[in-house]
Amino acid sequence: MNNLLGSGALVAGFASAISAAGWWAMVARGRHTRTPARQMTVAMLVSAAAACGVLIWALVTHDFSVRYVAENGARAVPLYYTVISLWAALEGSLLLWLLVLAGYAVLVMRHVHPRAAALHPWAMTVLCGVAVFFFGLALFAGNAFAPVSPVPADGPGPNPLLQDHPLMGVHPPLLYLGYVGLTVPFAYAVAALITGRTGRGWLLVTRRWTLTAWAFLTAGILLGAWWSYEVLGWGGYWAWDPVENASILPWFTATALLHSVMVQERRAALRVWNLALAAATFLLVILGTFLTRSGVVASVHAFTQSAIGPALLGFLVVVFVAVGGLFVWRADRLGADDRLEVGLSREAVFLGNNVILVGLAFTVLIGTVFPLLVEAINGQRVSVGAPYFNRMAVPLALAMVVLMGIGPLVPWGAGDPRALGRRLAVPAALGLATVGGLGLAGLDGVGPLLTFGLGVFVLATIAAQVMTATRATRSATGRGTLTALALTVVRRRRMYGGLVVHAGVVLAAIAIAASSAYSVEGEQTLQVGESFTVGSYTATLEGITPARTDRKMSITTQVAIADAGRQLGVYEPALSFYPAAAQAIGTPSVKTRLFEDAYLVLTSVNDERTQATIQLIVSPLMLWLWIAGGVMLAGAVLAGWPSRGRGRVARPAARPRDQRREAAV
Amino acid sequence: MTAVEQPAIEQPDALEQRRRRRWPWLLGLVVVAIGVFAVLSTGFGRDPTVVESVLLNEPAPPLHGPTLDGGDFDLAEHRGEIVVVNVWASWCVPCRREYPLLEQAAVQLAPYDVQFVGINTQDTPEDAQTFLDEMGGSSYPSVLDPKGRWGVEWGTFGVPETFVVDQDGRLREKRIGELTPGWIVQAVAPLLEGQ
Q1: Residue scoring higher pLDDT (A286 or A291)
Q2: What is the pLDDT of residues A440-473, one digit of tens each?
């Protein structure tokens, strides 16, 4: 029954996506009214939701006649993990992808921007066209609803790693919301290329979509890092695994796009560049999906091979050729850009920012596909490790931090170096003082000290900007400081939201530098009652408790942690053995404190269960990485939250200069 | 301020000239696309359940000790025979599913010199015996490995895993995860040539 319902929903979705794409293309060419196209688009969303609903129902009711349930369900798995098994494997996660994509399509359909009305039906055509591909993929290449006969009595359950932490219910959907959301700027970029209207119109529509997708992607990446830290038990949060790279690649280009559109919003410049960034971001999303869903690269996330891999590769190449062809075909309409000020100007800083971000994307991309390249050339299997990525990415990231400090202070057009110097003097002095102070305090390492110094420098420039503006508002309005601060920020939310995001990025950089440079660790085999010391922390093994359930066999240890003699509580790192699983799965236990984490991992237990090998990692400032994530998201929300009465009072705080420029367009 | 921007349309001459300049670009695009396809399709056709083991084609690790049925087993005494080694545990669901395949293969290969042996890993003898009783008994021995020692020795990633050792005591095949029907016979058949 569920086989039929699910496959039926996919067939309905495939059909409605095809007709929706067709109708929208006709609307775009002025041959039809919108109503049927809109209905088909909604039908597409309903079908995707129905397919997800049927699969969740089949999982919850343990209908093992459904292939996906037979492969990923198990009676012993708790309800929550059964429901989120929807995205535990390839075929199910495709359905989630479809739901998100169809959801975005309906949302994009509902809002037609007056400045880009001609682009709207073309953008819808592209969105529905992408949906056609993914519905086809779910239906023909990896149908989760294929019947299984004879019906098994029980299944293996989802990947043990995914059963281990409730975050698995949140991390993949957030990542998908980000990933799939980046289809929207792509769709509008293609629409701009098709119509030849490559001016500001498409940017005004997609600005908020890009920011929304970016925020989801950021949240998804950070939650993934957190999950890696809390669950995987190796003490780190980022391993340059191909899947992590796949998520960070479009993040780099989307971040670049968010900045470079600001240049084009002011003047006719960087048109082709912005279109190319939007297209590249989408291509990187598809490439990332391909790399991780096809089994061509080894990764903890890689799914097994199926027809989906070749289909995704085909789609990637087709989109690449189609978009490239559009660029060539429309080369005559792209028009000549204004010359950019190359001197000291906001434009130049944005350009620098874009070069660095695209450079980062390129570096990481090369490292990720390099093993495939080598294998294609001489058949050898190689792997590119963290040292390559760290060596290449860290200097670029530091250069980006420098630009984050300077950029917001440099005016558009031609800036005055002396005025800039005056504004940067105090923050720069604070940054130098930080480096000096920390150096004298005995911290070593050029990289981390540089990061701390630059971090303080950027935070100081941000604080100075906010303070100066608040003071001006206070004297202009006569209100109190807090009210003036709120007024200042609300009037230019986009700018201050951006500064908050910058503060978050800087905090993250500081946390990453501190935790990777100054963490200390030790490992020791302890009898029950014995203890060992790492840094100022002492870990005492208090007990070993084995347990066995239907799903797994596990051994939990009780370890008391003390810092300089002060007891901090008992923590329970564990080891679990799941059937059919890669090795034993360690569950670390973390004592999180404001300035450092004590991270406990159970490495092994002896046969008699009398002694255990415990690893203790003390990592400074880890909490601040997660706080930084929160700050970045808060900034994105501040910058992107829709204004009250949108459309009625579109931009109340536009400055006279902007208005002059707009009048000239 | 115009509400809708107009696409810029150039003079016909300039247009014609630009159009002629398109072809090299399109050609380049297609070449790049073919390159991308060639590189990215490298990994297709790889079976992720076939794992390259450093132990493959090397002398098999030792395996000896008391068995579940109260006997003793030593791999070294089975030189000259093909040995199929299966790592299993009572708490492992795929092991339960693949068990009939093992028994079936043991019956099929009974006329030849093929020895089957289990490594009962991370398990208790009581649970393991219950498992075998539920399965209708076992026709071959299983070495007890409550501490997972032999599992480490054989470089197992998880359970189940199955190995084939040839007549010279070399490890010839390794499979991670549940067996598929026919896998054992296919892995053993080439080693039986001449028998």
Answers
A1: A286
A2: 988 888 889 999 999 999 999 999 999 999 999 9
- Closest of A445, A600, A440 to residue A516, by C-alpha: A445
Verify that B85 and B137 share a domain, yes or no: yes
Q: Could A552 and B89 be called an inter-chain contact, meaning their C-beta atoms sit closer than 8 Å?
A: no
Pair B39, B70 in one domain: no
Residues B112 and B73 in one domain: yes
Cβ neighbours of residue A111 under 8 Å, at least 6 residues apart?
A: none
Bridge partners for A544 per DSSP: A557
Asked whether residue B6 is domain-assigned, the answer is no
Say if B146 falls within a structural domain.
yes
Query: Residue A434 contacts by C-beta under 8 Å, 6 or more apart in sequence?
Result: A452, A453, A455, A456
Per-residue pLDDT tens over the stretch A122-141: 999 999 999 999 999 999 98
The residue range of the domain holding B22 is 12-43
* ipTM reported for the complex, 2 dp: 0.71
Q: In terms of CA atoms, which chain A residue is nearest residue B36?
A: A317
3-state secondary structure of A429: helix
Residue A88 phi/psi, 5° resolution? -80, -20
Interface probe with B: pick from A197, A318, A552, A553, most Cβ of B within 10 Å: A553
**Whether residue B108 sits in one domain with residue B18:** no
Q: Between B4, B7, B33, which is nearest A196 by CB?
A: B7
Quick: pLDDT tens for A254-266. 999 999 999 888 8
Instruction: Pull the structure tokens for residue A633.
Output: 């998201």
